[in-house]
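Saturday, quiet lab. Running sequence design on the structure tokens for the scaffold JK sent over.
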């Protein structure tokens, strides 16, 4: 097995940051149990578990994280409407940007496509 290209390593770091963000949202949430709490409880370990398979070049992991990030990307629109504060919107914009970077790094560069 060859070492993962830099594009895949940076994407894996982005996936790990998403996993950590899921935990931070739980820790700092001003709300009690709700749908978002369950979402973050489930997705934090799922994202974390996908970092290593992505680094190993497992295409199923790339497809699965794409599915998760796509769903989360769309879900952020709901959160945008439900939480109109500037802080929430700033966090959502950061999440959208990180998701776009991760997905682009996993699918666009030739080195990433060849690795998977």
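Result came back. Writing it out in full:
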């Amino acid at each position: 097995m060859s070492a993962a290209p830099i594009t895949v390593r940076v994407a894996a770091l982005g996936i790990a940051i998403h996993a950590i963000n899921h935990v931070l949202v739980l820790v700092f949430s001003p709300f009690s149990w709700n749908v978002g709490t369950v979402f973050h409880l489930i997705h934090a370990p799922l994202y974390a578990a996908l970092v290593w398979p992505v680094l190993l070049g497992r295409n199923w992991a790339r497809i699965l994280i794409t599915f998760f990030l796509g769903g989360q990307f769309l879900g952020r629109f709901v959160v945008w409407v439900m939480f109109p504060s500037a802080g929430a919107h700033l966090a959502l914009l950061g999440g959208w940007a990180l998701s776009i970077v991760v997905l682009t790094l996993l699918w666009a560069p030739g080195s990433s496509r060849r690795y998977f």
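Notes for JK: The mean pLDDT is 92. Residues 37 and 86 are 21 Å apart (CA to CA). Ask whether to fix the surface positions before the next round.
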